[in-house]
Amino acid sequence: MRVVVTGATGGIGFAVAEAFAKAGHAVVLADLNAELLKSKTAELTAAGYIADAFVLDVTNAEQIAACAAQFPADILINNAGIQHVARLEDFPPEKWALLLDVMLTGPAMLTRAMLPHMQQQNFGRVINIGSIHALVASPFKSAYVAAKHGLLGFSKVIALENADKNFTINTICPAYVKTPLVEKQISAQAKEHNLTEQQVIEQIMLAPMPQKAFIDVSEIAETALFLCQPAAKHITAQTLVLDGGWTAR
Fold this sequence. Notes:
Shape: globular
Structural class: alpha/beta
Order of helices and strands: EHEHEHEHEHEHHHE
Strand order of the largest sheet: 3-2-1-4-5-6-7
Largest sheet: 7 strands, parallel
Low-confidence stretches: none
Radius of gyration: 18 Å
Strand content: 15-25%
Mean pLDDT: 95
Distance between the termini: 40 Å
Number of domains: 1
Helix content: 40-55%
CATH class: Alpha Beta
Protein backbone atom coordinates (compact mmCIF):
# COMPACT_ATOMS: atom_id res chain seq x y z
CA MET A 1 0.00 0.00 0.00
CA ARG A 2 1.06 3.59 -0.53
CA VAL A 3 1.45 5.68 2.61
CA VAL A 4 1.76 9.47 2.37
CA VAL A 5 3.23 11.16 5.45
CA THR A 6 3.26 14.94 5.85
CA GLY A 7 5.87 16.65 7.98
CA ALA A 8 7.90 13.57 7.15
CA THR A 9 11.37 14.89 7.93
CA GLY A 10 10.57 15.66 11.57
CA GLY A 11 10.93 13.39 14.56
CA ILE A 12 7.43 11.94 14.56
CA GLY A 13 6.94 12.06 10.78
CA PHE A 14 10.12 10.21 9.92
CA ALA A 15 9.57 7.62 12.66
CA VAL A 16 6.12 6.89 11.22
CA ALA A 17 7.41 6.79 7.63
CA GLU A 18 10.25 4.45 8.59
CA ALA A 19 7.92 2.13 10.51
CA PHE A 20 5.55 1.79 7.55
CA ALA A 21 8.49 1.27 5.17
CA LYS A 22 9.85 -1.50 7.38
CA ALA A 23 6.38 -3.08 7.37
CA GLY A 24 6.58 -3.36 3.59
CA HIS A 25 4.60 -0.32 2.48
CA ALA A 26 5.65 2.16 -0.21
CA VAL A 27 6.05 5.46 1.61
CA VAL A 28 5.92 9.00 0.28
CA LEU A 29 7.69 11.55 2.44
CA ALA A 30 6.01 14.94 2.04
CA ASP A 31 7.56 18.03 3.58
CA LEU A 32 8.48 21.68 2.97
CA ASN A 33 12.20 21.16 3.50
CA ALA A 34 13.42 19.92 0.09
CA GLU A 35 17.02 19.33 1.14
CA LEU A 36 16.18 17.38 4.28
CA LEU A 37 13.45 15.55 2.37
CA LYS A 38 16.00 14.34 -0.16
CA SER A 39 18.38 13.04 2.50
CA LYS A 40 15.66 11.34 4.57
CA THR A 41 14.21 9.63 1.49
CA ALA A 42 17.69 8.51 0.43
CA GLU A 43 18.19 7.07 3.93
CA LEU A 44 15.17 4.82 3.45
CA THR A 45 15.96 3.77 -0.10
CA ALA A 46 19.57 2.99 0.88
CA ALA A 47 18.18 0.60 3.48
CA GLY A 48 16.23 -1.19 0.74
CA TYR A 49 12.80 0.32 1.37
CA ILE A 50 10.42 1.84 -1.19
CA ALA A 51 10.34 5.58 -0.65
CA ASP A 52 9.54 8.68 -2.70
CA ALA A 53 9.65 12.36 -1.86
CA PHE A 54 7.24 15.20 -2.55
CA VAL A 55 7.88 18.83 -1.62
CA LEU A 56 4.56 19.86 -0.10
CA ASP A 57 3.23 22.96 1.56
CA VAL A 58 -0.04 21.77 3.12
CA THR A 59 -1.44 25.31 2.88
CA ASN A 60 -1.00 25.35 -0.91
CA ALA A 61 -4.02 24.06 -2.85
CA GLU A 62 -2.07 23.47 -6.08
CA GLN A 63 0.59 21.42 -4.31
CA ILE A 64 -2.05 19.39 -2.49
CA ALA A 65 -3.76 18.57 -5.80
CA ALA A 66 -0.43 17.66 -7.42
CA CYS A 67 0.50 15.37 -4.52
CA ALA A 68 -2.84 13.55 -4.70
CA ALA A 69 -2.55 13.19 -8.48
CA GLN A 70 1.01 11.83 -8.40
CA PHE A 71 0.76 9.79 -5.21
CA PRO A 72 -2.86 8.83 -4.42
CA ALA A 73 -2.70 7.47 -0.90
CA ASP A 74 -4.14 4.28 0.52
CA ILE A 75 -3.03 5.52 3.93
CA LEU A 76 -2.64 9.22 4.75
CA ILE A 77 -0.79 10.42 7.83
CA ASN A 78 -1.53 14.09 8.55
CA ASN A 79 1.44 15.01 10.70
CA ALA A 80 2.74 18.43 9.57
CA GLY A 81 2.77 20.88 12.44
CA ILE A 82 4.18 24.15 13.74
CA GLN A 83 3.98 25.98 17.04
CA HIS A 84 3.99 29.52 18.37
CA VAL A 85 3.80 30.34 22.06
CA ALA A 86 2.40 33.70 23.14
CA ARG A 87 -0.47 35.36 24.97
CA LEU A 88 -3.39 36.05 22.66
CA GLU A 89 -2.83 39.82 22.87
CA ASP A 90 0.77 39.28 21.72
CA PHE A 91 -0.08 36.65 19.10
CA PRO A 92 0.50 37.98 15.54
CA PRO A 93 -2.80 37.46 13.67
CA GLU A 94 -1.01 36.12 10.59
CA LYS A 95 0.81 33.57 12.75
CA TRP A 96 -2.48 32.50 14.37
CA ALA A 97 -4.00 31.97 10.93
CA LEU A 98 -0.94 30.05 9.73
CA LEU A 99 -1.15 27.54 12.58
CA LEU A 100 -4.81 26.87 11.76
CA ASP A 101 -3.98 26.54 8.05
CA VAL A 102 -1.16 24.05 8.65
CA MET A 103 -2.79 21.89 11.32
CA LEU A 104 -6.52 22.01 10.56
CA THR A 105 -7.30 23.30 7.08
CA GLY A 106 -4.25 21.52 5.58
CA PRO A 107 -5.21 18.05 6.84
CA ALA A 108 -8.81 18.66 5.76
CA MET A 109 -7.88 19.68 2.23
CA LEU A 110 -5.31 16.91 1.81
CA THR A 111 -7.83 14.35 3.05
CA ARG A 112 -10.37 15.82 0.62
CA ALA A 113 -7.89 15.39 -2.24
CA MET A 114 -7.08 11.78 -1.31
CA LEU A 115 -10.66 10.65 -0.61
CA PRO A 116 -11.78 9.91 -4.21
CA HIS A 117 -9.05 7.27 -4.62
CA MET A 118 -9.91 5.70 -1.27
CA GLN A 119 -13.63 5.69 -2.03
CA GLN A 120 -13.12 4.23 -5.48
CA GLN A 121 -11.06 1.31 -4.21
CA ASN A 122 -13.22 0.91 -1.08
CA PHE A 123 -10.22 1.17 1.24
CA GLY A 124 -8.70 4.10 3.04
CA ARG A 125 -7.03 4.95 6.30
CA VAL A 126 -6.45 8.50 7.51
CA ILE A 127 -4.46 9.02 10.68
CA ASN A 128 -4.12 12.49 12.14
CA ILE A 129 -1.29 13.18 14.52
CA GLY A 130 -3.00 15.27 17.14
CA SER A 131 -1.79 16.16 20.60
CA ILE A 132 -2.73 16.03 24.26
CA HIS A 133 -3.78 19.60 23.46
CA ALA A 134 -6.64 18.24 21.38
CA LEU A 135 -8.16 17.31 24.76
CA VAL A 136 -6.81 19.80 27.27
CA ALA A 137 -5.46 23.34 27.14
CA SER A 138 -2.31 25.14 28.20
CA PRO A 139 -1.75 28.88 28.42
CA PHE A 140 -0.10 30.73 25.53
CA LYS A 141 -1.06 28.14 22.90
CA SER A 142 -4.46 29.35 21.71
CA ALA A 143 -3.92 28.67 18.00
CA TYR A 144 -2.32 25.25 18.49
CA VAL A 145 -5.00 24.12 20.97
CA ALA A 146 -7.78 25.40 18.70
CA ALA A 147 -6.36 23.57 15.68
CA LYS A 148 -5.89 20.28 17.51
CA HIS A 149 -9.34 20.42 19.09
CA GLY A 150 -10.78 21.09 15.65
CA LEU A 151 -9.03 18.06 14.22
CA LEU A 152 -11.08 15.75 16.44
CA GLY A 153 -14.38 17.22 15.28
CA PHE A 154 -13.26 17.11 11.66
CA SER A 155 -12.34 13.42 11.97
CA LYS A 156 -15.73 12.50 13.41
CA VAL A 157 -17.55 14.14 10.52
CA ILE A 158 -15.41 12.45 7.84
CA ALA A 159 -15.87 9.08 9.55
CA LEU A 160 -19.65 9.50 9.42
CA GLU A 161 -19.60 10.63 5.79
CA ASN A 162 -17.65 7.51 4.78
CA ALA A 163 -19.11 4.91 7.13
CA ASP A 164 -20.41 2.91 4.17
CA LYS A 165 -16.85 2.32 2.96
CA ASN A 166 -13.89 0.32 4.26
CA PHE A 167 -12.52 3.60 5.54
CA THR A 168 -11.38 4.81 8.94
CA ILE A 169 -10.08 8.11 10.25
CA ASN A 170 -8.58 8.46 13.72
CA THR A 171 -6.41 10.85 15.69
CA ILE A 172 -3.39 9.88 17.77
CA CYS A 173 -2.93 12.29 20.67
CA PRO A 174 0.38 12.02 22.50
CA ALA A 175 1.52 14.04 25.46
CA TYR A 176 4.87 15.75 25.04
CA VAL A 177 7.23 14.00 22.62
CA LYS A 178 10.92 14.95 22.69
CA THR A 179 11.24 16.34 19.18
CA PRO A 180 12.87 19.53 17.78
CA LEU A 181 9.42 21.20 17.89
CA VAL A 182 9.12 20.50 21.61
CA GLU A 183 12.71 21.58 22.23
CA LYS A 184 11.77 24.98 20.80
CA GLN A 185 8.69 25.06 23.03
CA ILE A 186 10.84 24.45 26.10
CA SER A 187 12.94 27.49 25.25
CA ALA A 188 9.90 29.64 24.43
CA GLN A 189 8.04 28.67 27.59
CA ALA A 190 11.12 29.27 29.73
CA LYS A 191 11.11 32.84 28.46
CA GLU A 192 7.33 33.27 28.82
CA HIS A 193 7.19 31.87 32.37
CA ASN A 194 10.58 33.22 33.49
CA LEU A 195 11.81 29.71 34.34
CA THR A 196 14.84 27.62 33.47
CA GLU A 197 14.39 25.04 30.72
CA GLN A 198 14.66 22.19 33.25
CA GLN A 199 11.96 23.85 35.34
CA VAL A 200 9.72 24.03 32.26
CA ILE A 201 10.17 20.28 31.70
CA GLU A 202 9.50 19.37 35.33
CA GLN A 203 6.92 21.98 36.35
CA ILE A 204 4.95 22.45 33.14
CA MET A 205 5.43 19.68 30.61
CA LEU A 206 5.66 16.59 32.77
CA ALA A 207 3.89 17.89 35.87
CA PRO A 208 0.37 16.80 34.74
CA MET A 209 1.63 13.40 33.57
CA PRO A 210 1.61 10.72 36.30
CA GLN A 211 4.23 8.62 34.51
CA LYS A 212 6.60 11.63 34.27
CA ALA A 213 8.12 10.71 30.90
CA PHE A 214 8.18 11.99 27.36
CA ILE A 215 6.38 9.86 24.77
CA ASP A 216 8.75 8.12 22.34
CA VAL A 217 8.22 8.54 18.60
CA SER A 218 8.20 4.75 18.21
CA GLU A 219 5.03 4.55 20.31
CA ILE A 220 3.23 6.84 17.88
CA ALA A 221 4.54 4.95 14.85
CA GLU A 222 3.43 1.58 16.22
CA THR A 223 -0.01 2.95 17.11
CA ALA A 224 -0.37 4.23 13.54
CA LEU A 225 0.58 0.81 12.18
CA PHE A 226 -1.99 -0.86 14.41
CA LEU A 227 -4.75 1.42 13.10
CA CYS A 228 -4.07 0.05 9.61
CA GLN A 229 -4.37 -3.60 10.63
CA PRO A 230 -7.53 -5.68 9.97
CA ALA A 231 -8.09 -5.87 13.73
CA ALA A 232 -8.66 -2.09 13.74
CA LYS A 233 -11.13 -1.93 10.85
CA HIS A 234 -13.97 -0.83 13.13
CA ILE A 235 -11.94 1.73 15.03
CA THR A 236 -12.95 5.03 13.45
CA ALA A 237 -13.66 8.60 14.60
CA GLN A 238 -11.63 7.79 17.70
CA THR A 239 -8.99 9.60 19.70
CA LEU A 240 -6.12 7.37 20.80
CA VAL A 241 -4.50 9.08 23.75
CA LEU A 242 -0.87 8.35 24.67
CA ASP A 243 -0.61 10.55 27.72
CA GLY A 244 0.82 8.56 30.62
CA GLY A 245 -2.38 9.10 32.60
CA TRP A 246 -2.60 12.91 32.09
CA THR A 247 -6.33 13.00 31.26
CA ALA A 248 -7.27 10.56 34.05
CA ARG A 249 -7.03 13.39 36.59
